[in-house]
Automatic annotation (TrEMBL):
Identification of the protein by name: tRNA (guanine-N(1)-)-methyltransferase
Coiled-coil annotated residue ranges, if any: none
Species this chain originates from: Corynebacterium callunae DSM 20147
EC number of this enzyme: 2.1.1.228
Keywords from the named record: Cytoplasm, Methyltransferase, S-adenosyl-L-methionine, Transferase, tRNA processing
Main subcellular location: cytoplasm
Amino acid sequence: MVYGFRGLGRFSAVSSSQEFDAHRLRLDVISIFPEYLDPLRHALLGKAIEDGILEVGVHDLRKWATGGHKAVDDTPYGGGPGMVMKPEVWGPALDDIAAGHVVGDELESASPHLKSARHDEIEGVEKRAYEVEAAGDKELPLLLVPTPAGKPFTQTDAQGWSNERHIVFACGRYEGIDQRVIDDAAKRYRVREVSIGDYVLIGGEVAVLVIAEAVVRLIPGVLGNRRSHEEDSFSDGLLEGPSYTKPRSWRGLDVPEVLFSGNHAKVDRWRRDQALLRTQAVRPELIDETQLDAADRKVLGLD
Ligand code: SAM
């Protein structure tokens, strides 16, 4: 193993997705606004830290800046507006994190009372990791560089990355990071430039929160009930249909009758129909990629 971090040494190098008991994920985030990452220690992520499933290191990029002003950015070659983040600052930061030279800046759980069982815990529910194809040399940490110019982040990525041992995030600001930093990092990392959507944020920190939350909730043991995410939107390619709870009638609106039938097959069919109809209305392109049987096609009016 290449990891030198405090904590990770306790665990053996496990690549099999079956060995979930030993699964630990370390996240390292480099940012000029480390306080932005505080949500990573709250709620279910905080509990994952307490349970030893997750370790989070947050690092201030300015620690690697030199000179009186500790500048992390400079004007772009070729002219144009804005500033670009400097390679001489990012390069050493990524070198140190990859080599495991940086210890400290650890986030502690914000919710130490969360030792109790969760509301979604179901005794005897099996904990299994997602099966994904091994991508490249897993000995190298995965470096995720949020950028609107990256490949779109999907639930399939989240499933795959929930099997990782060490993910490093490089948060850009201004016009982004000098491209040579990303090219050079490929010597020490598996690198992926990733976008969370077709819009432009001010910095990469919010994208890190989005990706980290989507990934960590899929690590076995983070959600008490694995079905919570197996039935989520995108898991079977469709959006999830509507959900209801008590009371049965509220402000003149009734819960659909079928949900009281006690007939599981009927309820499952109704849920599938609702998922199909919502997906067709909101994200029709997802229907094209979904395997449909005769009953599905009938509901969608395709036959
Ligand atoms: N000049 C860049 C472009 O047009 O592609 C935009 C830079 S943006 C103002 C600053 C930083 O915000 C980026 O380096 C990235 O870290 C982050 N960011 C902005 N939009 C994002 C998105 N849709 N997905 C992921 N990260 C994003």
